[in-house]
Write a structure and sequence with these properties.
This protein has about 270 residues and is an alpha+beta fold. It has two domains: about 10-95, no CATH class; about 100-145 and about 180-265, no CATH class. Helices cover about 30% and strands about 35% of the residues. The strands form two sheets. Strands 1-2-3-7-10-11 form a six-stranded antiparallel barrel. It has a three-stranded antiparallel beta sheet with strand order 4-5-6, with no helix packed on it. It starts with 9 loop residues before the first helix and ends with a strand.
Length: about 270
């Protein structure tokens, strides 16, 4: 049985109710279905349609189904959706201008520079080579070797290295950059905003390779890329980094990601 829908005036609602009543009556009328259950439903429907034929009864039914709170809630939902669409439109316009943005200016650096970023318990490397383009590298490391915070980092022979303690011995881990992804840096999300995170930020991939020559499984942490309309952090983006700010980048497809906090930087 098909139920027709309408959002018109009261006479249209009554016509809709009459149509639906006839559709049900064809199946539930005692001449069609002699069972007691069908007869009871048919009787209730008959009483209901009689009530709706009375204008006061129709208004009372609408009042009981759609109260003031429901109407206000609907108005708020419509207004919120209009606002979300406006924000998405503005963001698309702003993101479309990113190819013309000076990456040196965004990161407040004079020229080509490499950044080591903490990304959970892993690392990413951001190389800014020209004014309008940067390159994001994922790093590869042995599982459970590198703590979230090492003593210091250094840039030597074109690679980032970090020192950590193992059994009171100083060891240096050399990060091997992989999977270069051209990106634009669009801003920074302050640490205080991370409590609003609504989805996972990291993808974890394990491997058997170990930079230190061991046989333990390795761990590669990769950013989660989101469309601008789905990136929860966009409303918090600022144009200057602060302590523990997360770096936000956009890839060539227009997707956005948090890629880590700046731990160190070194000019090429």
């Amino acid at each position: 049985m098909e139920l027709k829908r309408s959002t018109g005036a009261l006479n249209e609602l009554l016509a809709l109710a009459e149509t639906n009543f006839r559709n049900f009556a064809r199946h539930l009328h005692p001449d069609k279905d002699p069972s007691p259950g069908a007869a009871g439903i048919y009787l209730n429907l008959s009483h209901a349609i009689e009530d709706l034929r009375d204008p006061d009864g129709m208004e009372l039914a609408i009042e009981s189904l759609v109260g003031e709170d429901d109407r206000q809630s609907l108005i708020r939902r419509v207004e919120q959706e209009i606002e979300r669409n406006r924000i998405r439109k503005n963001l698309r316009a702003v993101l479309g201008l990113l190819p013309n943005i000076d990456q040196f200016g965004v990161l407040d650096i004079p020229g080509p520079t490499s950044f080591l970023l903490q990304f959970g318990a892993s690392r990413t490397i951001l190389d800014v080579n020209v004014h309008d383009r940067a390159v994001l590298h994922l790093t590869f490391q042995e599982l459970d070797v590198l703590p979230e915070q090492t003593e210091k980092a250094r840039f030597a022979e074109g690679r980032w290295q970090e020192m950590y303690l193992s059994n009171e011995t100083e060891l240096w881990l050399s990060h091997r950059p992989e999977k270069a992804t051209p990106v634009n840096v669009i801003g920074f999300v302050p640490a205080r905003s991370l409590r609003y995170r609504t989805d996972d930020t990291f993808n974890l991939v394990t491997d058997e390779y170990s930079e230190l020559g061991g046989t333990l499984a390795g761990m590669r942490t990769t950013p989660v890329w989101s469309k601008p309309s789905e990136a929860w952090f966009l409303q918090f983006v600022e144009d200057k980094p602060h302590k523990d700010s997360e770096v936000v980048v956009m890839d060539g497809r227009g997707n956005l990601a948090l890629i880590g906090t700046i731990q160190a930087r070194e000019a090429f």
